[in-house]
Amino acid sequence: MSRHKQDTPSQRGYTLPELLIGMALSLLVIAAAMSAYGTSMQTWSAMAAADAVHANARVALRNIREQTHIAGASYLKPNSNSDGKFTVELSPGQDSEQTAVAGVNGTKNIESLTLGHWSALDTSDCQGNTGTSHTSVRNDYKLNTNKELSCKDLNLTNSTYQALAEGVEDFQLRYAEANPSTQTIQWKTANQVTDMTLVLAIEVCLRVASIHTVHNTKPNSQLKGCQDEALPADGRMRRTFKRVVALRNRDGVMP
Question: Residue 7 falls within a domain, yes or no?
């Protein structure tokens, strides 16, 4: 009598339906993982683009703010009398031939801002150069054709415009001009200002875009540009930054 070997559970294989179900579940897990990875990559790209946009805006606005704060500042200068004794006097606030604040109103590539200060007060210009031999530094800011905010010292020999921040699509300025007789302040464009020596503050507006597209970025209808325009819907991250910078050395303009 022959003995038949009985199958045990450990010796049994998977049936075809079980294999198909297992493969389907595995594919679902892989698809979910790939979807989560794609979403996380898009989120990371959006965060990186937003960080770059804010970083460019910070660099540009900080540079303008620092130069605005010292625009038209006076400084103490020693003078030697004929008797050999030294006296100290206060310099004039600005060069009569080169005002501390000047501007040009126009399209985004024409709009410009010029801020001046005595080189004896600070030899650094907007690019960080300190080699000027002129009595004053005159920093001029404007957009170039590469969507970069650029600047240069107008008094520095052989100076050329250098980029400060990239991705800047628009650069607009307004000036707070005081009227001492009526005790009022009115915001004006450069061509509307009657006397730049009466300007107490400058409003700077930058519209900055990311360099690369972010595909999950959708335009927000509530966000507007510097001229209240709708933002383009091309997949780039965009933000509009407005800052008001006071001219510290204009205290006393209003009686």
Answer: no
Residue 63 domain flag: yes
Distance CA 131, CA 151 (A): 16
The answer to pTM > 0.90 is no
Q: CA 130, 131, 133 angle in degrees (round to 5)?
A: 120
pLDDT digits 0-9 by tens, 2-21 = 555 555 555 667 787 877 88
pLDDT at residue 23 above 70? yes
pLDDT digits (tens, 9 = 90+) for 119-156: 999 999 999 998 788 899 999 999 999 999 999 999 98
Residue 252 backbone dihedrals phi, psi, to 5 degrees:
100, -5
Residue 54 counted as domain residue: yes
